[in-house]
């Protein structure tokens, strides 16, 4: 199997994916109250699957058993990550949810790193995530155990998504892997969403928002990340994702009119510094083969 590097540098692809996800998140904030968690996730994954299948037209014949196990694991991580995160948002403030969820990628980055500067950057990024998310401003008395468990589950699935996405990208050409994984995830969650939201999913405004979320939160970022992970190490990718809370703060300011506190600006600076440390180290390192 031949491996080609993307025309755009892999870190740039990840940054584009982050920006797309946060725009989609701002749009999703207006959809959740209308059709609930299951309906929102089902609509997002189903529309994304249809778009990816139409574009990629993945090759299904001749696949090995390991190919199917790999892409099924990717689909499970992807689907459960989305559902757990949306469910946690109904119980916890978004800043706390994002902070807890980010434990997964940060631990993955620390476990897969062999450089001391990378390990230090994980700590800096973790501090920045806490500041940007606003978790320090939230009273613990407002939290519940179910919400905490859901956020932790989303974090575990996020780490699993990083690993299985890289493995799927190595076994499937182009966007075949993400198209098949999205179809499998949608096939499991769509019936649940139909039962939960019913005819509300067919409302014109809901469908339009769902299509926008599917593009911004699924098709564009997952495709870019799948391509980037063919050449980007998992620990580098994990720390780059620490920009997610900072990007969310910017999206909140631009799209939703939310203000940025000095504490969050400091957190944004910390995660940018951490990502810069990892990127500078990446210039002299080679991603593993296979």
From TrEMBL:
Superkingdom in the source lineage: Bacteria
Primary site of residence: membrane
Pfam families in the cross-refs: EamA (PF00892)
Keyword annotations of the record: Cell membrane, Membrane, Transmembrane, Transmembrane helix
Cellular localization per UniProt: Cell membrane
Membrane topology: Multi-pass membrane protein
Family of this protein: Belongs to the EamA transporter family.
Name of the protein in its database record: Membrane protein
CC terms in the record's Gene Ontology section: plasma membrane
InterPro entries, sorted: Diverse_Substrate_Transporter, EamA_dom, EmrE-like
TM ranges: 38-56, 68-88, 94-112, 119-139, 145-163, 175-194, 206-224, 236-257, 263-281
Domain EamA: 146-278
């Amino acid at each position: 199997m031949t491996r080609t590097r993307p025309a755009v540098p892999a870190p740039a692809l990840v940054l584009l994916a982050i920006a797309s996800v946060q725009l989609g998140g701002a749009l999703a904030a207006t959809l959740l109250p209308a059709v609930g968690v299951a309906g929102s996730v089902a609509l997002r994954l189903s529309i994304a699957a249809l778009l990816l299948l139409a574009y990629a037209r993945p090759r299904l014949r001749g696949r090995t058993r390991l190919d199917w196990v790999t892409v099924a694991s990717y689909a499970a991580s992807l689907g459960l990550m989305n559902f757990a995160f949306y469910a946690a948002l109904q119980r916890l403030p978004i800043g706390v949810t994002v902070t807890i969820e980010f434990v997964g990628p940060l631990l993955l980055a620390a476990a897969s790193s062999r450089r001391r500067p990378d390990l230090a950057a994980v700590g800096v990024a973790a501090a920045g995530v806490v500041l940007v998310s606003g978790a320090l401003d939230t009273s613990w008395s407002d939290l519940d155990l179910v919400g905490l468990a859901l956020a932790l589950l989303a974090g575990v699935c996020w780490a699993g998504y990083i690993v299985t996405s890289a493995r799927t990208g190595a076994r499937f050409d182009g966007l075949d892997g993400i198209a098949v994984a999205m179809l499998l995830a949608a096939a499991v969650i769509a019936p649940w969403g139909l039962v939960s939201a019913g005819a509300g999913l067919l409302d014109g405004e809901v469908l339009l928002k769902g299509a926008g979320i599917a593009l911004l939160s699924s098709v564009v970022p997952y495709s870019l990340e799948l391509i980037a992970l063919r050449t980007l190490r998992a620990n580098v990718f994990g720390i780059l994702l620490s920009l997610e809370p900072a990007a969310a703060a910017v999206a909140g300011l631009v799209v939703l009119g939310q203000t940025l506190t000095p504490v969050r600006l400091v957190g944004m600076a910390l995660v940018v510094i951490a990502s810069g440390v990892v990127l500078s180290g990446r210039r002299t390192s080679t991603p593993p083969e296979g």
